[in-house]
Task: inverse folding
């Protein structure tokens, strides 16, 4: 199964403060902006497209959100790297067969229709990796 770099999630304290760099310096385009108040997510998101990739700027919605805790513990910067797969369920099964552990409570469909799950950083030597798939992408070919 092919894993294609989908986006990089960047933890920021404020979308408004961070966005000008990505738009004006990297010449990105703001593709979407939304808030997810789902328990365990609680994040403001700005999706920026650069010439070849997507970047998600992620800011906490409150001081107790998982993103706020991440920033407090690790600081601003790269939060996760996301890889798109054709079939998320198959990718999870294949990875489990290879001993990969997942953060089970992160399996969800976000408010924009992307199914996702995070791999436990213990399985990736410390990097938070998201596997994701999209309902609107042809999932028939591996």
Result:
């Amino acid at each position: 199964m092919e894993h294609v770099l989908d986006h990089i999630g960047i933890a920021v304290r404020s979308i408004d403060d961070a966005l000008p760099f990505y738009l004006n310096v990297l010449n990105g385009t703001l593709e979407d902006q939304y808030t997810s108040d789902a328990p365990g997510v609680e994040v403001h998101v700005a999706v920026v497209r650069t010439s070849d990739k997507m970047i998600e700027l992620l800011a906490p919605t409150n001081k107790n959100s998982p993103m706020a805790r991440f920033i407090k513990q690790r600081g601003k910067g790269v939060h996760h790297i996301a890889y798109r797969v054709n079939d998320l369920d198959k990718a999870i099964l294949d990875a489990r067969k290879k001993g990969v552990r997942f953060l089970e409570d992160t399996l969800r469909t976000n408010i924009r229709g992307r199914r996702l799950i995070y791999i436990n950083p213990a399985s990736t030597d410390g990097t938070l990796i998201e596997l994701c798939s999209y309902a609107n992408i042809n999932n028939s070919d591996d």
Observations:
- DSSP finds three helices and eight strands in the chain.
- The CA atoms of residues 95 and 101 lie 8 Å apart.
- The two ends are 5 Å apart (CA to CA).
